[in-house]
């Protein structure tokens, strides 16, 4: 098989959608607030299963339009979508024959995953699913629900072989090509079962990627911790899952969305370290996300429409010998071009941005946004063995959030060691 990770490594930016019954309480249950993510409400407030299940009788997202998400994701510059097919609460957002606890037994009664899959196929978007493999608060034998079910009586394998594996098979056989499957919270799951799960995925769809949270490094790519950007760059495939506010599921109370500049900064930092940013939205019980969060992503999408070349198909640049005080660098290997993401714009003439330690000859420097040429100077001081490279920016900052400059090199990037 050709490099099955290529699409993922080139994609750089994806949309995560956490959606399920938890969107209805939106973080609040009978006057009590869910302490962390709203999707953890049932467990954190120990809501009895019989009560939580009644939410299914109310689930009716009449405003849901899968094309809204897929078309928006395209405009937002995202290259894949990961939707929660089943989160920890155990409720399937699709037509499963394995359990009655699904969207088919709600007033809505339509398969959400099918609609996303079809819209993605029609719009040329890579469709992916999230599946909580270890925790399932509805199943007496799965991990997580210790208030309805006695932990001492749990037989995990009964859940694993009767619900988890069959449901994963359904997802991988009934919805066309799945770009990747996103497992989560493997906790103490035995390695052999994690391997079996990954094998089932690859038997059903050899090209489908398995994420790192299948456990034990068995996945096809790695995951950073939630909302955490690794300190060091690495150019194997990895992904940073991130929230737009402080929760994954919809919240009635939290509309503290990151500003576009903050999203952009996170995206460039993740991509500059060689990874992908998987940014989350949480639709409400009607199927919509707050307009304010969509606007944030619109703005980032506008920036990407102009500067996307500095993000997609890039890798992290090699380590330069000195800290870079003005921003980040991404690198397109095929085009032997470095992209300088200038966040701290020079304030005084001659508006210099300096990079030490670049050994290549620079052929051309341009402002990515409009292709205009930027003057530059290279020098080498023999006795000190120092390579210096300066560019001279326009006096007026073209983009206060991130001005991108394309630096075309004469060949593969080479960096001085000090
Ligand atoms: O428990 C989940 C959480 O609800 C959410 O799904 C995130 C997404 O990365 N993963 C787990 C916590 O790491």
Overview of this protein structure:
The protein has 418 residues and is of the alpha/beta class. It folds into two domains: 6-310, Glycosidases (TIM Barrel); 327-409, Golgi alpha-mannosidase II (Immunoglobulin-like, Sandwich), CATH 2.60.40.1180. Helices cover 24% and strands 21% of the residues. It has nine helices and 18 strands. Strands 7-6-5-4-1-10-9-8 form an eight-stranded parallel β-sheet. The protein has a five-stranded antiparallel β-sheet with strand order 11-12-13-18-15. It has a three-stranded antiparallel β-sheet with strand order 14-17-16, with no helix packed on it. The radius of gyration is 24 Å and the shape is elongated. The two termini are 41 Å apart. 44% of the residues are buried. The structure holds ligand FHN. Residues 37, 39-40, 184-185, 226, 241, 248 line the site of ligand FHN.
Overview in brief:
With 418 residues, the protein is an alpha/beta fold. The protein is built from 9 helices and 18 strands.
CATH hierarchy class name of the largest domain: Alpha Beta
* SS class: alpha/beta
What is the tally of beta strands?
18
Shape: elongated
Overall tally of domains:
2
Radius of gyration: 24 Å
The percentage helix is: 10-25%
Distance between the termini: 41 Å
Read across the widest sheet, the strand sequence of neighbours is: 7-6-5-4-1-10-9-8
Number of DSSP helical runs: 9
**Proportion of residues in β-strands:** 15-25%
How would the blueprint of this fold be written?
Elements: H1 6-11, E1 13-17, E2 28-29, E3 32-33, H2 41-44, H3 49-53, H4 66-75, E4 80-86, H5 112-123, E5 126-131, H6 156-174, E6 180-183, H7 191-204, E7 209-210, E8 222-223, E9 238-242, H8 260-272, E10 276-281, H9 291-307, E11 315-316, E12 327-332, E13 337-342, E14 352-356, E15 362-367, E16 376-381, E17 386-392, E18 403-409
Parallel strand pairs: 1-4, 1-10, 4-5, 5-6, 6-7, 8-9, 9-10
Antiparallel strand pairs: 2-3, 11-12, 12-13, 13-18, 14-17, 15-18, 16-17
Helix pairs in contact: 4-5, 6-7, 8-9
Bound molecules: ligand FHN.
Ligand FHN binds next to loops.
């Amino acid at each position: 098989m050709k490099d099955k990770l290529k699409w993922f490594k080139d994609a750089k930016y994806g949309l995560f959608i956490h959606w399920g019954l938890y969107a209805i309480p939106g973080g609040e249950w009978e006057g009590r607030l869910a302490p962390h993510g709203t999707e953890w409400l049932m467990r954190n407030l120990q809501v009895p299963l019989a009560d939580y299940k009644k939410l299914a009788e109310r689930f009716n997202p009449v405003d849901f339009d899968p094309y809204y998400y897929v078309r928006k994701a395209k405009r937002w510059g995202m290259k894949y979508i990961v939707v929660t097919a089943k989160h920890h609460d155990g409720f399937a957002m699709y037509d499963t024959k394995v359990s009655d606890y699904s969207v088919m037994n709600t007033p809505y009664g339509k398969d959400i995953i099918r609609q996303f899959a079809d819209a993605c196929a029609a719009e040329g978007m890579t469709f992916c699913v999230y599946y909580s493999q270890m925790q399932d608060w509805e199943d007496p034998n799965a991990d997580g629900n210790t208030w309805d079910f006695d932990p001492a009586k749990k037989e995990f394998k009964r859940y694993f072989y009767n619900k988890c594996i069959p449901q994963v098979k359904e997802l991988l056989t009934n919805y066309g090509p799945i770009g990747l499957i996103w497992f989560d919270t493997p906790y103490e799951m035995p390695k052999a079962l994690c391997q079996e799960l990954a094998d089932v995925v690859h038997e059903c769809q050899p090209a489908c990627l398995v994420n790192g949270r299948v456990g034990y490094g068995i996945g096809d790519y790695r995951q950073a911790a939630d909302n955490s950007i690794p300190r060091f760059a690495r150019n194997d495939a990895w992904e940073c899952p991130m929230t737009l506010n402080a929760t994954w599921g919809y919240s009635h109370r939290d509309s503290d969305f990151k500003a576009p500049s903050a999203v952009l900064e996170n995206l460039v930092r993740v991509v500059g370290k060689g990874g992908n940013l998987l940014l989350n939205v949480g639709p409400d019980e009607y199927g919509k996300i707050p307009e304010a969060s969509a606007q944030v992503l619109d703005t980032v999408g506008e920036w990407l429409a102009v500067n996307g070349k500095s993000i997609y198909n890039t890798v992290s640049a090699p380590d330069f010998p000195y800290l870079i005080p003005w921003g980040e660098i991404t690198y397109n290997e095929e085009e032997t071009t470095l992209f300088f993401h200038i966040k701290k714009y020079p304030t005084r003439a001659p508006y210099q941005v300096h990079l030490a330690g670049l050994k290549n000859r620079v052929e051309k420097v341009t402002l990515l946004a409009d292709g205009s040429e930027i003057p530059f100077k290279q020098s080498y001081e023999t006795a000190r063995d120092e390579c210096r490279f300066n560019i001279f920016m326009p006096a007026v900052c073209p983009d206060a959030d991130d001005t991108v400059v394309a630096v075309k090199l004469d060949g593969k990037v080479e960096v001085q060691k000090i």
